[in-house]
Specification:
Blueprint: H1 3-19, H2 46-54, H3 69-82, E1 86-90, H4 93-104, E2 110-114, H5 119-131, E3 135-139, H6 145-149, E4 156-162, H7 174-183, E5 187-191, E6 208-212, E7 226-230, H8 233-246, H9 252-262, H10 265-284, E8 289-293, H11 303-309, E9 316-321, H12 327-336, E10 341-342, E11 352-355, E12 372-376, H13 382-395
The chain binds pyridoxal-5'-phosphate.
Protein backbone atom coordinates (compact mmCIF):
# COMPACT_ATOMS: atom_id res chain seq x y z
CA UNK A 1 0.00 0.00 0.00
CA UNK A 2 1.32 3.44 -0.91
CA UNK A 3 2.58 5.54 2.00
CA UNK A 4 0.15 8.38 1.35
CA UNK A 5 -2.77 5.92 1.67
CA UNK A 6 -1.43 4.85 5.08
CA UNK A 7 -1.19 8.47 6.21
CA UNK A 8 -4.72 9.21 4.99
CA UNK A 9 -6.04 6.14 6.80
CA UNK A 10 -4.38 7.10 10.11
CA UNK A 11 -5.70 10.65 9.84
CA UNK A 12 -9.10 9.23 9.00
CA UNK A 13 -9.13 7.04 12.11
CA UNK A 14 -8.34 9.89 14.51
CA UNK A 15 -11.26 12.00 13.32
CA UNK A 16 -13.62 9.07 12.82
CA UNK A 17 -13.14 7.99 16.42
CA UNK A 18 -14.25 11.36 17.75
CA UNK A 19 -17.46 11.20 15.66
CA UNK A 20 -18.56 7.55 15.54
CA UNK A 21 -21.37 6.34 17.79
CA UNK A 22 -22.13 9.79 19.17
CA UNK A 23 -25.49 10.46 20.77
CA UNK A 24 -28.15 10.86 18.10
CA UNK A 25 -31.19 11.27 20.30
CA UNK A 26 -29.80 14.46 21.75
CA UNK A 27 -32.58 14.97 24.26
CA UNK A 28 -30.09 16.42 26.73
CA UNK A 29 -27.30 17.05 24.20
CA UNK A 30 -24.73 14.95 26.02
CA UNK A 31 -21.73 14.17 23.80
CA UNK A 32 -21.90 10.44 24.59
CA UNK A 33 -25.03 8.31 24.78
CA UNK A 34 -25.75 7.69 28.48
CA UNK A 35 -26.09 4.09 29.72
CA UNK A 36 -29.53 2.65 29.01
CA UNK A 37 -30.09 -0.34 31.28
CA UNK A 38 -33.27 -2.32 30.88
CA UNK A 39 -35.17 -5.44 29.97
CA UNK A 40 -38.83 -4.43 29.49
CA UNK A 41 -39.76 -1.68 27.02
CA UNK A 42 -43.29 -0.23 27.28
CA UNK A 43 -45.66 0.62 24.40
CA UNK A 44 -48.93 2.54 24.33
CA UNK A 45 -50.52 0.47 21.58
CA UNK A 46 -50.36 -3.13 20.42
CA UNK A 47 -49.54 -1.89 16.94
CA UNK A 48 -46.51 0.11 18.18
CA UNK A 49 -45.20 -2.95 19.96
CA UNK A 50 -45.87 -5.16 16.93
CA UNK A 51 -43.90 -2.78 14.73
CA UNK A 52 -40.93 -2.74 17.12
CA UNK A 53 -40.88 -6.50 17.63
CA UNK A 54 -41.04 -7.26 13.92
CA UNK A 55 -38.05 -5.03 13.14
CA UNK A 56 -35.56 -7.87 13.49
CA UNK A 57 -32.80 -6.24 11.49
CA UNK A 58 -33.62 -2.62 12.25
CA UNK A 59 -32.98 -0.67 15.40
CA UNK A 60 -36.36 -0.36 17.04
CA UNK A 61 -35.84 -1.00 20.75
CA UNK A 62 -38.29 -3.73 21.75
CA UNK A 63 -36.70 -5.73 24.57
CA UNK A 64 -33.39 -5.69 26.47
CA UNK A 65 -31.87 -8.79 24.91
CA UNK A 66 -32.44 -7.39 21.41
CA UNK A 67 -30.06 -4.48 22.06
CA UNK A 68 -30.45 -0.77 22.64
CA UNK A 69 -28.79 2.61 22.24
CA UNK A 70 -25.43 1.61 23.76
CA UNK A 71 -25.14 -1.46 21.54
CA UNK A 72 -26.07 0.54 18.45
CA UNK A 73 -23.57 3.32 19.22
CA UNK A 74 -20.74 0.83 19.68
CA UNK A 75 -21.81 -1.07 16.57
CA UNK A 76 -21.58 2.12 14.52
CA UNK A 77 -18.11 2.84 15.89
CA UNK A 78 -16.82 -0.67 15.20
CA UNK A 79 -18.33 -0.73 11.69
CA UNK A 80 -16.51 2.56 10.99
CA UNK A 81 -13.19 1.23 12.36
CA UNK A 82 -13.49 -2.03 10.40
CA UNK A 83 -14.84 -0.34 7.25
CA UNK A 84 -17.85 -2.67 7.18
CA UNK A 85 -21.52 -2.35 6.36
CA UNK A 86 -22.99 -3.32 9.73
CA UNK A 87 -21.82 -4.73 13.03
CA UNK A 88 -23.36 -6.92 15.72
CA UNK A 89 -22.03 -6.81 19.28
CA UNK A 90 -21.75 -10.11 21.17
CA UNK A 91 -20.63 -11.12 24.65
CA UNK A 92 -16.94 -11.90 23.99
CA UNK A 93 -14.35 -12.34 21.28
CA UNK A 94 -14.74 -16.11 21.54
CA UNK A 95 -18.51 -15.74 21.04
CA UNK A 96 -17.88 -13.53 17.99
CA UNK A 97 -15.86 -16.35 16.38
CA UNK A 98 -18.47 -19.02 17.11
CA UNK A 99 -21.42 -16.82 16.06
CA UNK A 100 -19.68 -16.01 12.76
CA UNK A 101 -19.10 -19.70 12.01
CA UNK A 102 -22.60 -20.81 13.05
CA UNK A 103 -24.18 -18.04 10.95
CA UNK A 104 -22.88 -19.46 7.67
CA UNK A 105 -22.47 -23.24 8.23
CA UNK A 106 -25.02 -26.07 8.10
CA UNK A 107 -24.77 -29.77 8.83
CA UNK A 108 -23.07 -31.65 5.97
CA UNK A 109 -21.01 -28.62 4.93
CA UNK A 110 -17.26 -28.14 5.14
CA UNK A 111 -15.11 -25.32 6.55
CA UNK A 112 -11.41 -24.59 6.06
CA UNK A 113 -9.82 -23.18 9.23
CA UNK A 114 -6.28 -21.85 9.64
CA UNK A 115 -4.11 -24.05 11.82
CA UNK A 116 -2.86 -20.83 13.50
CA UNK A 117 -6.32 -20.07 14.88
CA UNK A 118 -6.96 -18.88 18.46
CA UNK A 119 -7.13 -21.95 20.75
CA UNK A 120 -10.77 -21.68 21.89
CA UNK A 121 -11.88 -21.20 18.24
CA UNK A 122 -10.02 -24.41 17.35
CA UNK A 123 -11.81 -26.19 20.20
CA UNK A 124 -15.18 -24.84 19.05
CA UNK A 125 -14.55 -26.14 15.53
CA UNK A 126 -13.48 -29.55 16.71
CA UNK A 127 -16.17 -30.10 19.32
CA UNK A 128 -19.31 -28.09 18.53
CA UNK A 129 -19.03 -27.92 14.72
CA UNK A 130 -17.89 -31.55 14.62
CA UNK A 131 -20.90 -32.65 16.69
CA UNK A 132 -23.23 -30.69 14.42
CA UNK A 133 -21.96 -32.60 11.38
CA UNK A 134 -19.82 -29.81 9.93
CA UNK A 135 -16.53 -31.12 8.52
CA UNK A 136 -13.47 -29.09 9.53
CA UNK A 137 -10.09 -29.08 7.80
CA UNK A 138 -7.20 -27.16 9.38
CA UNK A 139 -4.86 -25.70 6.73
CA UNK A 140 -1.32 -24.31 7.25
CA UNK A 141 -1.57 -20.53 7.89
CA UNK A 142 1.05 -19.65 5.25
CA UNK A 143 -0.51 -21.80 2.52
CA UNK A 144 -0.57 -20.20 -0.94
CA UNK A 145 -3.91 -19.43 -2.55
CA UNK A 146 -3.26 -22.04 -5.27
CA UNK A 147 -2.47 -24.76 -2.72
CA UNK A 148 -5.55 -23.86 -0.69
CA UNK A 149 -7.66 -24.15 -3.86
CA UNK A 150 -6.93 -27.92 -3.81
CA UNK A 151 -8.51 -28.27 -0.36
CA UNK A 152 -11.95 -27.01 -1.47
CA UNK A 153 -14.79 -29.52 -1.75
CA UNK A 154 -18.22 -29.05 -3.33
CA UNK A 155 -19.54 -28.63 0.24
CA UNK A 156 -16.98 -25.99 1.36
CA UNK A 157 -19.04 -23.01 2.59
CA UNK A 158 -16.51 -20.98 4.55
CA UNK A 159 -12.82 -20.24 5.07
CA UNK A 160 -11.73 -19.01 8.49
CA UNK A 161 -8.55 -16.87 8.63
CA UNK A 162 -6.65 -15.29 11.48
CA UNK A 163 -3.72 -13.10 10.55
CA UNK A 164 -1.24 -13.06 12.11
CA UNK A 165 -1.78 -16.40 13.89
CA UNK A 166 -2.43 -16.44 17.63
CA UNK A 167 0.89 -17.02 19.43
CA UNK A 168 2.87 -18.03 16.30
CA UNK A 169 2.33 -14.84 14.25
CA UNK A 170 2.38 -16.17 10.67
CA UNK A 171 0.85 -13.59 8.30
CA UNK A 172 -1.77 -14.96 5.90
CA UNK A 173 -2.29 -14.04 2.25
CA UNK A 174 -5.87 -13.01 2.99
CA UNK A 175 -6.52 -11.30 -0.39
CA UNK A 176 -5.26 -14.42 -2.23
CA UNK A 177 -7.32 -16.74 -0.03
CA UNK A 178 -10.39 -14.53 -0.51
CA UNK A 179 -9.97 -14.70 -4.30
CA UNK A 180 -10.02 -18.52 -4.25
CA UNK A 181 -12.92 -18.60 -1.79
CA UNK A 182 -14.97 -16.32 -4.04
CA UNK A 183 -14.41 -18.66 -7.01
CA UNK A 184 -15.80 -21.51 -4.88
CA UNK A 185 -18.73 -19.53 -3.48
CA UNK A 186 -17.37 -19.73 0.09
CA UNK A 187 -17.60 -16.99 2.73
CA UNK A 188 -14.35 -15.63 4.21
CA UNK A 189 -14.35 -15.03 7.96
CA UNK A 190 -11.36 -13.23 9.50
CA UNK A 191 -10.44 -12.88 13.16
CA UNK A 192 -9.01 -9.36 12.77
CA UNK A 193 -8.25 -8.67 16.44
CA UNK A 194 -4.49 -8.15 15.93
CA UNK A 195 -5.08 -6.14 12.75
CA UNK A 196 -7.69 -3.79 14.20
CA UNK A 197 -7.85 -0.82 11.83
CA UNK A 198 -4.33 -1.60 10.49
CA UNK A 199 -5.90 -4.25 8.25
CA UNK A 200 -9.04 -3.20 6.44
CA UNK A 201 -10.79 -6.54 5.98
CA UNK A 202 -13.42 -5.53 3.44
CA UNK A 203 -10.86 -3.94 1.11
CA UNK A 204 -9.15 -7.34 1.00
CA UNK A 205 -12.12 -9.55 0.13
CA UNK A 206 -13.23 -10.59 3.63
CA UNK A 207 -16.99 -11.12 4.15
CA UNK A 208 -17.18 -11.31 7.96
CA UNK A 209 -14.64 -9.69 10.30
CA UNK A 210 -14.50 -10.62 13.95
CA UNK A 211 -12.98 -8.54 16.76
CA UNK A 212 -12.28 -9.38 20.38
CA UNK A 213 -13.25 -5.88 21.58
CA UNK A 214 -11.83 -7.09 24.91
CA UNK A 215 -8.40 -6.21 23.48
CA UNK A 216 -7.33 -2.87 21.97
CA UNK A 217 -10.73 -1.45 21.24
CA UNK A 218 -11.85 -1.38 24.88
CA UNK A 219 -8.22 -0.92 25.81
CA UNK A 220 -8.38 -0.91 29.61
CA UNK A 221 -8.46 -4.59 30.69
CA UNK A 222 -11.90 -4.27 32.26
CA UNK A 223 -14.35 -5.43 29.59
CA UNK A 224 -15.08 -8.66 27.69
CA UNK A 225 -16.93 -8.07 24.39
CA UNK A 226 -16.85 -9.16 20.77
CA UNK A 227 -18.06 -7.89 17.42
CA UNK A 228 -19.10 -9.45 14.13
CA UNK A 229 -18.91 -6.97 11.26
CA UNK A 230 -20.15 -7.86 7.79
CA UNK A 231 -19.84 -6.70 4.21
CA UNK A 232 -23.48 -7.06 3.15
CA UNK A 233 -27.05 -6.69 4.47
CA UNK A 234 -27.70 -10.37 3.65
CA UNK A 235 -24.83 -11.53 5.88
CA UNK A 236 -26.05 -9.17 8.59
CA UNK A 237 -29.42 -10.94 8.55
CA UNK A 238 -27.73 -14.33 8.90
CA UNK A 239 -25.58 -13.11 11.81
CA UNK A 240 -28.50 -11.33 13.48
CA UNK A 241 -30.75 -14.42 13.19
CA UNK A 242 -28.05 -16.55 14.86
CA UNK A 243 -27.45 -13.99 17.63
CA UNK A 244 -31.18 -13.83 18.43
CA UNK A 245 -31.52 -17.63 18.26
CA UNK A 246 -28.62 -18.12 20.68
CA UNK A 247 -29.79 -15.38 23.05
CA UNK A 248 -26.42 -13.66 22.66
CA UNK A 249 -26.30 -10.50 24.75
CA UNK A 250 -23.81 -7.92 25.98
CA UNK A 251 -24.27 -5.56 28.91
CA UNK A 252 -24.98 -1.92 27.98
CA UNK A 253 -22.47 -0.84 30.65
CA UNK A 254 -19.77 -2.83 28.88
CA UNK A 255 -20.73 -1.33 25.51
CA UNK A 256 -20.51 2.13 27.06
CA UNK A 257 -17.05 1.37 28.49
CA UNK A 258 -15.85 -0.05 25.17
CA UNK A 259 -17.01 3.04 23.26
CA UNK A 260 -15.27 5.24 25.82
CA UNK A 261 -12.07 3.22 25.32
CA UNK A 262 -12.38 3.40 21.54
CA UNK A 263 -12.05 7.22 21.54
CA UNK A 264 -8.31 6.91 22.17
CA UNK A 265 -7.73 3.84 19.98
CA UNK A 266 -5.96 5.80 17.23
CA UNK A 267 -3.44 7.35 19.63
CA UNK A 268 -2.80 4.09 21.44
CA UNK A 269 -2.31 2.12 18.23
CA UNK A 270 0.18 4.63 16.83
CA UNK A 271 2.17 4.87 20.07
CA UNK A 272 2.20 1.13 20.76
CA UNK A 273 3.27 0.26 17.22
CA UNK A 274 6.46 2.30 17.59
CA UNK A 275 7.05 1.23 21.21
CA UNK A 276 6.76 -2.43 20.17
CA UNK A 277 9.26 -1.92 17.33
CA UNK A 278 11.72 -0.42 19.83
CA UNK A 279 11.34 -3.32 22.29
CA UNK A 280 11.36 -5.99 19.55
CA UNK A 281 14.52 -4.56 17.93
CA UNK A 282 16.31 -4.62 21.29
CA UNK A 283 15.23 -8.24 21.84
CA UNK A 284 16.24 -9.31 18.31
CA UNK A 285 19.80 -8.14 19.04
CA UNK A 286 20.02 -10.03 22.36
CA UNK A 287 22.29 -13.15 22.29
CA UNK A 288 19.66 -15.34 24.04
CA UNK A 289 17.07 -14.60 21.32
CA UNK A 290 16.92 -16.70 18.13
CA UNK A 291 14.18 -14.60 16.52
CA UNK A 292 11.39 -12.20 17.28
CA UNK A 293 8.10 -13.22 15.69
CA UNK A 294 6.82 -9.74 14.91
CA UNK A 295 5.69 -9.19 11.30
CA UNK A 296 6.38 -5.43 11.55
CA UNK A 297 10.09 -6.10 12.11
CA UNK A 298 12.11 -6.00 8.92
CA UNK A 299 13.37 -9.51 8.14
CA UNK A 300 10.83 -11.20 10.44
CA UNK A 301 8.59 -14.00 9.11
CA UNK A 302 5.58 -12.55 7.28
CA UNK A 303 7.10 -9.06 6.98
CA UNK A 304 6.55 -8.81 3.20
CA UNK A 305 2.82 -9.59 3.33
CA UNK A 306 2.44 -7.38 6.42
CA UNK A 307 4.02 -4.48 4.48
CA UNK A 308 1.75 -5.10 1.53
CA UNK A 309 -1.55 -5.39 3.45
CA UNK A 310 -1.25 -3.63 6.84
CA UNK A 311 -0.82 0.06 7.71
CA UNK A 312 0.54 -0.65 11.21
CA UNK A 313 1.04 -3.34 13.83
CA UNK A 314 -0.36 -4.45 17.16
CA UNK A 315 2.19 -4.40 19.99
CA UNK A 316 1.90 -8.18 20.50
CA UNK A 317 4.62 -10.56 19.34
CA UNK A 318 6.45 -13.80 20.02
CA UNK A 319 10.03 -14.35 21.15
CA UNK A 320 11.88 -17.56 20.28
CA UNK A 321 15.00 -18.27 22.36
CA UNK A 322 18.18 -19.97 21.19
CA UNK A 323 18.82 -23.71 21.63
CA UNK A 324 19.76 -24.36 25.23
CA UNK A 325 17.54 -21.57 26.60
CA UNK A 326 15.24 -24.16 28.17
CA UNK A 327 11.54 -23.90 28.85
CA UNK A 328 12.48 -23.71 32.55
CA UNK A 329 14.65 -20.68 31.81
CA UNK A 330 11.85 -19.03 29.83
CA UNK A 331 9.50 -19.47 32.80
CA UNK A 332 12.14 -18.06 35.17
CA UNK A 333 12.45 -15.09 32.81
CA UNK A 334 8.69 -14.44 32.92
CA UNK A 335 8.73 -14.59 36.71
CA UNK A 336 11.71 -12.22 36.94
CA UNK A 337 9.93 -9.50 34.94
CA UNK A 338 8.46 -6.63 36.97
CA UNK A 339 6.64 -4.41 34.45
CA UNK A 340 5.52 -7.25 32.15
CA UNK A 341 3.12 -9.30 34.29
CA UNK A 342 2.04 -12.89 33.60
CA UNK A 343 -1.54 -12.95 32.37
CA UNK A 344 -3.88 -13.77 29.48
CA UNK A 345 -5.29 -11.27 27.02
CA UNK A 346 -3.74 -8.03 25.71
CA UNK A 347 -4.74 -4.62 24.34
CA UNK A 348 -4.90 -2.91 27.74
CA UNK A 349 -2.58 -0.23 29.09
CA UNK A 350 -0.28 -2.64 30.96
CA UNK A 351 2.41 -4.89 29.51
CA UNK A 352 1.86 -8.65 29.69
CA UNK A 353 3.79 -11.86 29.11
CA UNK A 354 2.75 -15.48 28.58
CA UNK A 355 4.56 -18.77 28.01
CA UNK A 356 3.82 -20.21 24.54
CA UNK A 357 5.70 -23.51 24.45
CA UNK A 358 3.54 -26.39 25.57
CA UNK A 359 0.29 -24.48 24.99
CA UNK A 360 0.12 -24.53 21.19
CA UNK A 361 -1.05 -27.81 19.71
CA UNK A 362 0.97 -27.68 16.51
CA UNK A 363 4.29 -26.49 18.01
CA UNK A 364 6.85 -29.18 18.85
CA UNK A 365 6.70 -30.62 22.37
CA UNK A 366 8.51 -28.53 25.02
CA UNK A 367 11.43 -30.97 25.20
CA UNK A 368 11.97 -30.91 21.41
CA UNK A 369 11.50 -27.38 20.10
CA UNK A 370 12.95 -24.06 21.19
CA UNK A 371 11.18 -22.25 23.99
CA UNK A 372 8.97 -19.31 23.18
CA UNK A 373 7.08 -16.60 25.04
CA UNK A 374 4.54 -13.98 23.97
CA UNK A 375 4.95 -10.34 24.95
CA UNK A 376 2.45 -7.50 24.88
CA UNK A 377 3.86 -3.97 24.99
CA UNK A 378 1.55 -1.66 26.93
CA UNK A 379 1.69 2.07 27.52
CA UNK A 380 4.75 2.15 29.80
CA UNK A 381 7.81 4.02 28.48
CA UNK A 382 9.57 1.59 26.07
CA UNK A 383 12.94 2.40 27.72
CA UNK A 384 11.57 1.11 31.03
CA UNK A 385 10.26 -2.05 29.37
CA UNK A 386 13.66 -2.69 27.78
CA UNK A 387 15.35 -2.18 31.17
CA UNK A 388 12.88 -4.66 32.67
CA UNK A 389 13.68 -7.27 30.00
CA UNK A 390 17.39 -6.66 30.49
CA UNK A 391 17.33 -7.19 34.25
CA UNK A 392 15.22 -10.34 33.86
CA UNK A 393 17.44 -11.81 31.09
CA UNK A 394 20.54 -10.99 33.16
CA UNK A 395 18.98 -12.84 36.11
CA UNK A 396 18.36 -16.10 34.15
C1 LIG B 1 -8.59 -12.73 22.93
C2 LIG B 1 -8.89 -13.21 21.58
C3 LIG B 1 -10.12 -13.77 21.27
C4 LIG B 1 -11.20 -14.00 22.31
O1 LIG B 1 -11.63 -12.84 22.94
P1 LIG B 1 -12.36 -12.92 24.37
O2 LIG B 1 -13.10 -11.65 24.48
O3 LIG B 1 -11.26 -13.09 25.36
O4 LIG B 1 -13.25 -14.12 24.32
C5 LIG B 1 -10.35 -14.18 19.98
N1 LIG B 1 -9.41 -14.04 19.03
C6 LIG B 1 -8.20 -13.49 19.28
C7 LIG B 1 -7.23 -13.34 18.18
C8 LIG B 1 -7.90 -13.07 20.56
O5 LIG B 1 -6.69 -12.54 20.82
Amino acid sequence: MADHDDARRKRGLLTTLTRAGRSTENTARYVNPPVYRGSTVLFDTVEDRQRAVSSRYGRAVSYGVNGGANHHALEDAVAAIEGGDRCQIVSSGAAACSVALLSVLRSGEHVLVTDGVYGPTRQFCKSVLGNLGVEVTFYPPTISASELALAFRPTTRAVFCESPSSHTFEVQDVPGIAGVARQHGAVVILDNTWGVHHFQPFEHGVDISVQALTKYLSGHSDVCLGSVTVASPQLFEQVRDMVLALGQYASPDDCWLALRGARTLGLRLAHQHSAAIQVAEWLAAHPAVAQVLFPALSGAPGHDIWRRDFSGAASLFGVEFIDGFTIGKSHALLEALRLFRIGASWGGFESLALPTTGYIERLPAPDVGRSRVRLYVGLEAPEDLIADLKQALDAC
